[in-house]
Amino acid sequence: MTVMSIGKAWEEAVAFVARERSLLFPVALLFVALPGLILQEMTPPELANWTMEKGALPDVPFSFGLSMLIGVIIIWFGSLALFALALRPGISVGEALRLSLSRLPVLLGTALTVVGVLLGVAIVGMIIVVAISFVAKAASAALAMLLGLGLGGVMLFGSVRLLLLNPVVIDGKEGVSASLRHSWALTRGHFWRLLGFILVLTLLSAIVGSAAQVIFGLVGRLVAGAEGARLTGGIAAAVVSTVVQVYMLVMLARLYRQAEAG
pTM (2 decimals)? Predict the structure, then answer.
């Protein structure tokens, strides 16, 4: 089994970001932070304030759904470009963007494949639940709950096992199926280590982003009132979260190199 060192990846990521920050951060801010911030500003208030306790999901305009899809694709495009910069030292930003554009269809294909598999599992599970409901409603309710928990577990497991998918896509010339198999193979035996890595960075990003939002939000409130607080806090949170994400992506690139070397 390949040895995967989170500590070594962190040290290499810190050194790389310090050396190449003039290339990494402009790309991250333009293609990751900015689309996310625009989507945040476009989110309908009723959707932003919606929670599971409030019942059915509110009606969402088609334009917002389309904008969200475009925004996600742009963010994926930017992430691939960042991986290209991290995996190929000496590459220019223009070359990284062109490489990202050429490999983006493969990443989109892998996403559609994974979503299709999950939908297939969910549909089969729902058919089983409906069939059982004709016999015993109590049993069907319990089975539906177990199905939801199981599907959530499958999504978590799959997301961790495919954590190196983006570097696999950008660094190679494989197609959709081969990229998925390659990424899955590289993470074999490293599930818990990678899960801990993601949980720590996600928690760190949430804490630091929330702190920046509160601090800069207070400054914005003093200058421009409630609207200024919301906008300033949102921008600060997006920038800080993007900085954390840059380090995370570079670390993933280093972990990918470790796995490939093994």
Answer: 0.86
- What local confidence, expressed as pLDDT, does residue 65 receive? 80
- What is the CB neighbour count within 10 angstroms for residue 135? 8
User: What gap in Å lies between CA 213 and CA 45, rounded to an integer?
Assistant: 19
For the chain, the domains span 6-44+59-261
Three-class SS of the chain:
CCCCCHHHHHHHHHHHHHHHHHHHHHHHHHHHHHHHHHHHHHCCHHHHCCCHHHCCCCCCCHHHHHHHHHHHHHHHHHHHHHHHHHHCCCCCHHHHHHHHHHHHHHHHHHHHHHHHHHHHHHHHHHHHHHHHHCCCHHHHHHHHHHHHHHHHHHHHHHHHHCCCHHHHHHHCCCCHHHHHHHHHHHCCCCHHHHHHHHHHHHHHHHHHHHHHHHHHHHHHHHHHHHHHHHHHHHHHHHHHHHHHHHHHHHHHHHHHHHHHHC
* Positions of the chain with pLDDT under 70: 1-2, 45-58, 129, 133-141, 227-229
